[in-house]
Amino acid sequence: MNLRWGIIGCGRIAHRFVQGLREVPGASLVSVWSRRAESVDSFVDLYGGTACTSVEELLLSDIDAVYIATLPDSHSLYSILALNTGKHVLCEKPAATNLSLLNEVLEVAKSKGLLFMEGMKPPFFPLYSKLKERLLIDPIGPVGYVRAGSSVADISRDHPNFSYELIGGSLMQIGIYEAFLAIDWLGATKKVQTLGRFGETGIDMFSIFQTEHENGYAQLYAGFDLHGKGDALICGTLGHITIHKNWWNPARATIDYLDGHIVELDEPFTSGGLNYEIQHFCELIRQGKTESPVISHDMSRQMITMLDEARAQIGLKFTGE
User: Fold this and answer.
1) What is the enclosing helix (H) or strand (E) of 266?
2) 93-137, pLDDT tens digit by residue?
C-alpha cells in the first residue's frame, strides 16, 4: 500500500520531512501548499509533487495523509481542515497553542476515525530505542530526576521563533521537547514552577521550569539569547544516563552505573532523523490505528498542559486566549 502525502507549509522542517519521506518504503509526496505562495514552486522543483494554489486544492487531491509543517499559530486550524476532509494528520509540535485547541483537534480525529499524531521525533531515533532496550537488561533502577534543556543564541532575529503572532517563544518552540522528555521518564506532571524573561517582541526569550511528576522531579530550560549545551541527564537509583547534545536528535548516550561500569551507546541517524517518525506513522495507518502508542493523545495533552501552566506563571498569553 503506497501512502500518498500532502504537505502544508514549505519551511525548513518541511525540507527535512521530505528528505526523510524519501527513505520510507511505500510512501511518496503528491501535493504541496504553503501560505507563502512563492515558496511552493521552488519546493516542488526540488522534491517533486504538485504545487497547489490553495489548502482546499491540496486537501481534495489524491492523498492519504497530511504533514502540517506550518508555524504553531495555524496547527490546529489545518489539522481540523485535513481531518474533516478525511486525511490522516501528522502535525508538527506543538500540535496546538493550548489544551483547549488540542482537544478540539482530537475530538474531530476521534469522530472521523482518523490517525492524528503530534510530530515529536526523539523517541523514534535509533539511539532512543536502543537506550530503552538496554535498560531492560541492565537497568539504572527507578528514574527520579531529569535535567535537560537547550538555548540557541545564534538565531536571526527575523526568525519566526521571535514572533508573538506566530506563537513563538522559547517554551513553545524548545520547551515542548523538554516537556516530552520529563513526562516520558517521570510520568504525569503534578506541579510546575516557572521563571521567564521576555524580549522586545513579547515572547519569552529564556525560561526555566522545574516540574514535579508522579515519579520524580525535572529541571528544564529553553532559550534564544544564551548558548546552552543541549544535553540531557536522566538519573535512577543505580546509575545515570547522559544523552549527549543535541539530545532531541539523539545519536550518542553514556550510561554510568553506581557499581562503576559504563556503557557507551552510539547510534547514528540518517536523512535528518524524521524518517523514523514517518515510518512509524505509515505503519499505524496500515494497521488501521487512530493513535500512536508512543506519542499518544494523552502524551500530547500532558505536554501542552505543562506549557499552558508554565506560560500562565510567567504571564505569556497569545491572542484569543
Assistant:
1) strand 262-266
2) 999 999 999 999 999 999 999 999 999 999 999 999 999 999 999
Non-local (6+) Cβ contacts of 288 within 8 A are: none
Identify the CA nearest to 225 among candidates 318, 157, 167: 157
Task: State the amino acid at position 212 in one-letter form.
Answer: E
The answer for residues whose C-beta is within 8 angstroms of residue 39's C-beta and 6 or more apart is 10, 11
DSSP output for 139-155: ---SEEEEEEEEE----
Residue 15 CA to residue 34 CA, distance in Å, equals: 13
Cβ-contact 217, 144 below 8 angstroms: yes
CA dist., res. 156 & res. 32, Å (int):
27
Residue with cell 503528491: 30
In which element (H, E) is residue 300 found?
helix 297-314
How far apart, in whole angstroms, are the C-alpha atoms of residue 50 and residue 73?
A: 25
| Residue 119 to residue 294: CA distance in whole angstroms | 11
Does residue 279 contact residue 24 with C-beta atoms inside 8 Å?
Answer: yes
The torsion angles phi and psi of 287, rounded to 5 degrees, stand at -85, -5
- pLDDT mean by block of 10 residues, the chain; 321 residues: 95 95 97 91 95 97 97 97 98 98 98 98 98 98 98 90 95 97 98 97 97 98 94 98 97 98 97 96 98 98 98 96 92
Give pLDDT, residue 1.
82
**Sheet with 50-51, side-by-side order of all strands:** 50-51, 27-33, 3-8, 65-68, 88-92, 116-119
